[in-house]
Amino acid sequence: MIVKNSTNARTIKRLGAWLVPLAGTLSLMAFRLPADDNPIRVIAEKLSAYYARTLPEKAYLHLDRPAYGTGETIWFSAYVVDALRHRPDTLSKVLHVDLLSPERRVVVRRTLRLVGGRAAGDIELNDSLLAGTYLLRAYTNWMLNAGPDYVYQRRLQVWPASPDQTPADPGIASPATKAAVKSTVLPTGKVDVQFFPEGGTLVAGLPATVGIKAQAANGRSAVVSGQVLDEKNQPVVAVFATPHAGMGRLSFTPAAGQRYHARVKLPDGTSADYPLPAVQPTGYSLHVADTGDSYTVEARYKGTPGAPVPGPVMLLTEVRGFLIGLVPRPITDDGAPATWKVAKSRYPNGILHLTLFDAQSTPQAERLAFILNGAPALNVVLTPDRAAYAPHDPVHVKVQVQDATGQPVATHLSVTVAEAGAAALDPEAGNVATNLLLTSDLAGYVENPGYYFQNKTPETTQALDNLLLTQGWRRYVWKQVLGPTPPPITYPAERDLALSGRVTGMGQQGIANSQLTFIQNKPTRSILTATTGPDGRFNFTGFPGRDTAVITLQARRQTGGTNVMIRPDMGPPTFGAPLPPLPPLAAAPPGVADYLRRSRQQQVQERQNHPGDYVARTVQLGNVAVTGKKVLVPRDDTRRLYGAVANTVIDFANDMSAQSGLSIFQVLQGRVAGLTVSGTPPNMSVQIRGAGSPIFILDGMKVDDDAISSIPANQVESVEVFKGPEAAIFGAGSNGGVIAVYTKRGDKNYKGADKGPSPGILVVRLPGYYQAKEFYQPRYGAPVLNAPASDSRRLTLYWDPEFSTDIKGQGEFLFYTADGGGNFQIATEGVSLAGDPSQGKATIYVAPKSR
């Protein structure tokens, strides 16, 4: 079902300026124009209609710590708000949270029920996972209409902390860790240096400011310097540099007919040449200068000699839907600028989007700037009852939230108390303010977003402007807004759990009016029929979400043909280069060694206190069950060579992603500890722990990897991975491990609904809503409720994902210290009922436990 939204046009009244509410949102559009045929008003109304149709949303996850180790648990609190006012969202009721491996494969997926735009969850980083840079993302189905860049994403450092994975000395990486780092290192290559003219283009004879962005082959920013040369290799810009996060700027006036290039000195000491964008003979330029309490905006025009000068230019400015159209200015072709003054005080905090329109209402140039009137977030004052505590002491904390004028504010918050060293492992990571006000409206990855808001200095202000010169705007493009066809709504808003996807031919083309039969076998039995839409899409809703639903879908063409594929929606695409690897432990940032020591101590003590939790553990990796010694293919099956059963068994038959047209290697990629899958289909290679190519066995026969890569994953019942010594039974050549593939057709006793590549049939297991675990919080003192003899908590002492203050902005909470001593940071993040981000921090000291 597609959610449709409509709003009635509102009457425009003359109030000294044109004032029009923006289609059910926060905003006002103010026009200092006397005429009713104001062209900017027409553009603004189209933008209003665009927002009313797309109703953009934002998601944010607050974590208990900014970095983790293997064997630990990520605790998160989710906020979903409307993208303009940042108030708790009421459109979507389902949130999806994925954890992607360093190779960008989904290893954990959570589906959460949203209540008032809030949800909470947790992800266990099982000790079999390899250390590396992981990607945490959160999205609603509705967000996917804006494209994959619109989902919330955060890179997470996961360090090798499990006692099984790391030696005692944290400065020496184990063989498994070395293999993991080696497998995630990107191929070496030239640093990528890009140039972004302010406003969009270089125009001959018009002064230009150009943003610079340099990125190393491993995906991290690069520090470079250089100069711009003309076609005769004569310098036109003396020196430029990238002082922060690989970004900088340069200024010059390009000449007609010239092709410019930059000679760049790279971090390794070598030099390389990079082209600048081509110089246009005619066009518009846009320059924005920060003058303190306002921005001065200059527009220039260069036309064809002898041609008439175009009519006046108009400037439309916007911050999160708050629009101000400024008075048109006449423009000449002699280089003299048309100028506007944009007062910052007139806008809410956020990215200022400036667009220059010509007399025909065609956008000619764009520029991003930033508005920050006061603090980026509401101040949360945290007051512990004492500054220092002994182990197992109660800690009472009072909370007060106020705005800049000292008025109390009712706010939704999440609260964490974490060891100060662990809480500071990634000090410039994003937070609720940087996300809602900055990164959520920019395309692409922003490195260290916290840097821009930590301290307002001339350096950080300049760095933020460099970011906005080089990073793309992702809210919309004017072609979509002003075009005659409204943007497509492909993905409906989920009010409850849904099963959606497309019916296609053997390629990717959707098949309209395909006949669908829906059979639910568990938890209750039901049968439905439906037809696909014009693009071949389907959407079944109404699942209660209490239990996993087992569903069989059967699709036929309108003519009855069965040569179709059913492709369920699997979330945003996961393709792309591997994430940047962690540095070697010996070269890790300060604090990592102490953090790993604490983490291992905690895990060792937890194993001693709860040994049963570490026996025959099952790891759920994105609906693929990777188990220890669980036998899916019987031990006496004739396809088993030597009767060997692997420690790692992957259940393909019950995996939703294995039914979506992926290859076997694609399903395995990033989901099995020690197994590295590289390349792209059909050219993919496999290694186990970096020890060379494994032996491949298909239904009891040794084959080469080409035979495996050609088999669709939906034909496979299970895969077993033999690592290290357990592969020795297969004899010579088994040093690289063994991968045994068992197909459904090869099993005469297979009971599944689909034994092979049966077109038009799909069996799906749709998990219910994830039920978040309760964070363990012992209580000491009298009466003793659940106080343990020893308390292993050393990293996170307290976690409350759904704390709220009252209308007076007040609240309080209680937690107990543990055995571990040191400094602990109390931190809160959240969003007020009015949509303002909020943050607060405090520190307490816990004395070491006496022996």
Q: Overview of this structure, please?
A:
Among the domains are: 192-280, Immunoglobulin-like, CATH 2.60.40; 497-568; 624-765, TonB-dependent receptor, plug domain (Ferric Hydroxamate Uptake Protein, Chain A, domain 1, Beta Complex). The chain contains ten helices and 51 strands. Strands 28, 29, 30, 31, 48, 49, 50 and 51 form an eight-stranded mixed sheet that branches. It is globular. It comes from Hymenobacter ginsengisoli.
**Gross geometry:** globular
* Contiguous runs where pLDDT drops below 50 for at least 5 residues: 1-35, 167-188, 615-628, 753-757
What is the total tally of β strands? 51
**How many H/I helical runs?**
10
Overall mean confidence score, pLDDT: 84
CATH A-level architecture of the domain at 624-765: Beta Complex
Beta fraction of the residues? 35-45%
| Fourth CATH level, the homologous superfamily of the domain at 624-765 | TonB-dependent receptor, plug domain
Largest beta-sheet details:
8 strands, mixed
**Euclidean distance between termini CA atoms:** 64 Å
CATH topology of the domain at 624-765: Ferric Hydroxamate Uptake Protein, Chain A, domain 1
CATH class designation of the domain at 624-765 = Mainly Beta
Radius of gyration, Cα only, in angstroms?
29 Å
Q: What is the helix content? A: 10-25%
Class per helix and strand makeup: mainly beta
Main location: membrane
Family: Belongs to the TonB-dependent receptor family.
Membrane topology: Multi-pass membrane protein
Pfam families: Plug
